Amino acid sequence: MPLIEVEDLQIDFVTKRGVIKAVDGVDFQIEERKTLGIVGESGCGKSVTALSIIGLLDIPPAKVVKGKILFKSKNKIIDINKLNHKGSKIRSIRGNEISMIFQEPMTSLNPVLTIGDQITESIITHQNVAYKEAKTKSIDMLNSVGISNPSQRLNEYPHQLSGGMRQRCMIAIALSCNPKLLIADEPTTALDVTIQAQVLELIDQLKHEFNTAMLFISHDLGVIFSEADNVAVMYLGKIVESGTVEQIFENHKHPYTEGLFNSIPTITTDKSQRLVPIQGVVPDMFDLPKGCGFQNRCPKKFDLCKHKNPILKEISNGHKVSCWLYE
């Protein structure tokens, strides 16, 4: 049994205008100490999937319609979708066995609490220790994420820190209880390039130090390549291709995945050579086309694509593709 297994997950957003299928039949699993990278354009359902795993998607207009999120908690298999998302059981898992590094630390950290208050709160809540011991561990965690003068930083507020330091504090909070699964939702998006590299190196180092599995969400293929063992490519709430990082980067099959790779420059790209963007725009989520969701942007479409939606099928050694070209 993998550490976590998501089966046929469907999440709708019920609005006055209609229903949006934000996540539509997603399946994946993450083994212990392994990293799954989810990549795709903004709005494809990456973050919504992550929030459902940690039990933070239980208020309107979001609605988990069906599916299972099976998590190995203390040698028992628990379906997170069946838990009361305000109950004690999910609170004992969230922040303790499953933690999350959010995309923007300035909006995730509480602006009126010191960094020390926010780290010690997590430790006291989940580890059942006294304040003095929690404070000592908070200092150790800040030190482990590379923050100088950790005793002083404990008494400072988020606005007194730089963006990179705030993100390091988020990492310290997420790892303070030594979780089994760490979810990183585009943790370097708001940072300068040089700080991005430092934070990614730090996450990778701590992942191995704490033996933590990871779900790493990004739209940056370079980051996914450096961090992930396996990759899932999402489009319009569905996984359209999945496999090992080598399969996706060296032998990708889906036209959307191919389009993503053609859209990024490489160090060997001639400056006179133009990049090839993905044509068209993402369809209106309230008025999705019949058949394959990518057909209006796909250069390889044919008649069947307009009438029937392909399903995700294995084509070789765990490499799966949702495309009629490989039926």
Rg from Cα: 21 Å
Classify the oligomer.
single chain
How is the main sheet built? 8 strands, mixed
The N- and C-terminal alpha carbons lie at a distance of 29 Å
Strand order of the largest sheet: 6-7-8-3-9-10-12-11
Report the CATH C-level class of the domain at 1-86 and 214-266 and 273-327.
Alpha Beta
Using the alpha-carbon principal axes, give the shape: globular
- How much helix is in the residues? 25-40%
In the CATH hierarchy, the third-tier topology of the domain at 1-86 and 214-266 and 273-327 is known as Rossmann fold
**Helix and strand sequence:** EEEHEEHEHHHHHEHEHEEHHEE
User: Quick check: average pLDDT?
Assistant: 92
* Range of strand content: 15-25%
Poorly predicted ranges (pLDDT <50, ≥5 residues)?
none
Which structural category do the helix and sheet elements fall into? alpha/beta
The total count of strands amounts to 12
Based on the coordinates given, report the CATH architecture of the domain at 1-86 and 214-266 and 273-327.
3-Layer(aba) Sandwich
